[in-house]
Amino acid sequence: HPPIPNNKTLFLSFSLYFFFFFFFFFFLSHNRHQPYFSLFYKLIHSYVLFNFSKVYASYSSLESMEQLVNFIIRPPRAEYDPKSDLLDQEFLLKGKWYHRKDVELKNSRGDVLQCSHYIPIVSAEGKPLPCVIYCHGNSGCRADASEAAIILLPSNITVFTLDFSGSGISGGEHVTLGWNEKDDLTAVVNYLRNDGNVSLIGLWGRSMGAVTCLMYGAEDPSIAGMVLDSPFSDLVDLMMELVDTYKVRLPKFTVKFAIQYMRRAIQKKAKFDITDLNTIKVAKSCFVPALLGHAIEDDFIQPHHSDRIFEAYMGDKNIIKFEGDHNSPRPQFYFDSINIFFHNVLQPPEDEVGESFFDPVNDYFGCMEICA
User: Which CATH superfamily is domain 83-234+277-371 in?
Assistant: First the structure.
């Protein structure tokens, strides 16, 4: 792919246009009294100036394209302290004590994944419990799963979460918006299946994490159910929308060139093809029960992405729309729907299920105040 142009490149490009301009000017000036000269001169003059502006805009937009490439594959890593930003090693929730078990796993590329498994300290009769794997979004980390743990643990559903490779404090250099993250999820599922204390497995992903869940679920029909919060339907379409939404300086005629440029740049840096991240195609071969959710005012991944996935999805499905944007806190009725969904597909032991529907933030922090 073409390199970002330096001043010399810009000078040569502009000089070329000026050369043609002056060539035609001096050549035609000898015939300036001809009736067609004035019209032809104006046409040449307009053409040269128009293309001069296009060249300048195109080269200046390469920097914008590089920024978008980095935004996709190397966003800022979430910074957090496991000692203070995750749920405690032991904590009380709805009258029961739970434990955070931190583990390190390796993916197929040898990257170390930092993970946490939230489990009850005492499990009645030692029964294996179902588990939901929470998959964070772009620039996210395993700290984002605390809310999911507070919601699901009282329903006797354990929660496993991880920093995907390239995210948080896990190894790896690049984020791939679901492509390599799918392999990270494979490592987690294999670990849980070999654990001996896990029965059925569900997936809950947000944004990039939702895409990861969908791509993995299409390959593993044993997954009991998936919650997909604001997934994108096609990465190329999303990139074109972001160019328009965030006013990236790309003239209309360069959009296709820009996408191809970014495609090659991402292939070179992160070793995946953005055209392969089409979840509509994946949805047509996925039969895992799915609950989709999307914020109505989401202008980052617009709601029509979930609509397109929902229409193509082959398995049992439902979709919920709610107020807010891409990063807004999700409403309580949405969490209640998720709780009901996972209770139905994971079938946790009934005798262990407590109150399922509560305000997760107030319940957890209320317990923390009492315990303190």
Answer: Alpha/Beta hydrolase fold, catalytic domain (3.40.50.1820)
